[in-house]
């Protein structure tokens, strides 16, 4: 069966993620150890025990990537499937690169840990955030942002009627009544201090490119770019696309629509967020893998 591989982004983290895999798979244990060695962080403590670090972006990003990578590896070792492409949402694009063979696990963990640090550094002297807007057409949200004279930008095109805006937190709060005047069904400020996928992250693009130059393989399997909603499979292309992914909106729904006809089903590794979004975009089924039970179910559905 030809499947599209999906990888969730930041916001999908939870305490206990990966624990069932760890307790039931030697492969998962080895991957936890490798990730912990890569950045000298105890991933069992980070992901299994109550703590504040799990929501700090430099730790959130490698934790989510590790969870997704384990789900993918356990799936891959139990079934033969026809790879079509990998698609990640925001941070998930780096998990997708791992699945496509562009990075090994240690490299991927170090890369996204540093990516998180660079994002934090860009906001050391300002407070950013992100805001979900439901019930408005993309064009209306774009117009409100553009005409507001505030530091706010469309950041994630998730599905029709669901878009995420990024910017300065104070400006996002000012934007809320303007969006409600236009008929937004719901406007919700997210609990985060970094505004992803907007020009406020420009300072992080050059150092991220230098890291990518160091870590990426020259060629890999097809990955769909958040920036263009098109496939790429070379280091040269990645070096152009991944740094500006920080400052450009995530074209998620466009990516699904561009390539849904190439696959029979989607499998989401390490989350259920994209499954929920996909219900509004495509008639193709999305199968989530978050623990051993859902792994077995996914394997039986793809065979």
TrEMBL record:
Name the UniProt key words of this record, in alphabetical order: Acyltransferase, Transferase
Q: Does the keyword Acyltransferase apply?
A: yes
Which InterPro entries does the annotation name? Answer: Ac_transferase_dom_sf, Acyl_transferase_dom, Acyl_Trfase/lysoPLipase, Mal-CoA-ACP_Trans/PKS_FabD, Malonyl_CoA-ACP_transAc, Malonyl_CoA-ACP_transAc_FabD, Malonyl_transacylase_ACP-bd
Ranges for domain Malonyl-CoA:ACP transacylase (MAT) come to: 6-281
Q: Name one GO biological process term.
A: fatty acid biosynthetic process
The protein's matches in SMART domains, at most eight in alphabetical order, are given as: PKS_AT
Q: Which GO terms describe its cellular component?
A: cytosol
Per its record, the protein catalyses:
holo-[ACP] + malonyl-CoA = malonyl-[ACP] + CoA
Residues at the catalytic site: 90, 197
UniProt GO MF annotations: [acyl-carrier-protein] S-malonyltransferase activity
Keyword Hydrolase assigned to the entry: answer is no
Q: Which domain of life is it from?
A: Bacteria
Top EC group = transferase
EC numbers listed for it are 2.3.1.39
PANTHER family reported for this sequence: MALONYL-COA-ACYL CARRIER PROTEIN TRANSACYLASE, MITOCHONDRIAL (PTHR42681)
The protein's name is Malonyl CoA-acyl carrier protein transacylase
């Amino acid at each position: 069966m030809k499947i599209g591989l999906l990888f969730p982004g930041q916001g999908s983290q939870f305490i206990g993620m990966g624990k069932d895999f760890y307790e039931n798979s030697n492969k998962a244990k080895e991957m936890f150890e490798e990730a912990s060695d890569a950045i000298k962080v105890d991933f069992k403590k980070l992901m299994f025990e109550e703590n504040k670090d799990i929501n700090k972006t430099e730790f959130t990003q490698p934790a989510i990537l590790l969870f997704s990578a384990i789900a993918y590896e356990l799936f891959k070792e139990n079934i033969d499937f026809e790879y079509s492409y990998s698609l990640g949402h925001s941070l998930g694009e780096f998990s997708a690169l791992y699945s496509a063979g562009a990075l090994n696990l240690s490299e991927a963990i170090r890369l996204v840990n540093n990516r998180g640090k660079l994002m934090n550094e860009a906001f050391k002297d300002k407070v950013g955030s992100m805001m979900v807007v439901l019930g408005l057409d993309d064009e209306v949200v774009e117009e409100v942002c553009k005409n507001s004279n505030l530091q706010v930008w469309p950041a994630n095109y998730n599905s029709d009627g669901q878009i995420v805006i990024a910017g300065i937190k104070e400006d996002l709060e000012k934007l809320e009544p303007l969006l409600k005047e236009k008929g937004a069904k719901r406007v919700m400020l997210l609990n985060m201090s970094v505004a992803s996928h907007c020009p406020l992250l420009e300072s992080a693009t050059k150092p991220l490119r230098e890291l990518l130059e160091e870590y990426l393989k020259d060629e890999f399997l097809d990955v769909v770019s958040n920036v263009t909603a098109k496939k790429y499979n070379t280091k040269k292309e990645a070096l152009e696309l991944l740094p500006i992914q920080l400052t450009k909106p995530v074209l998620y729904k466009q990516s699904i629509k561009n390539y849904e006809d190439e696959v029979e089903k989607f499998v989401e590794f390490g989350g259920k967020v994209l499954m929920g979004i996909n219900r509004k975009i495509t008639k193709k089924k999305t199968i989530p893998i978050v623990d051993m039970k859902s792994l077995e179910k996914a394997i039986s559905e793809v065979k």
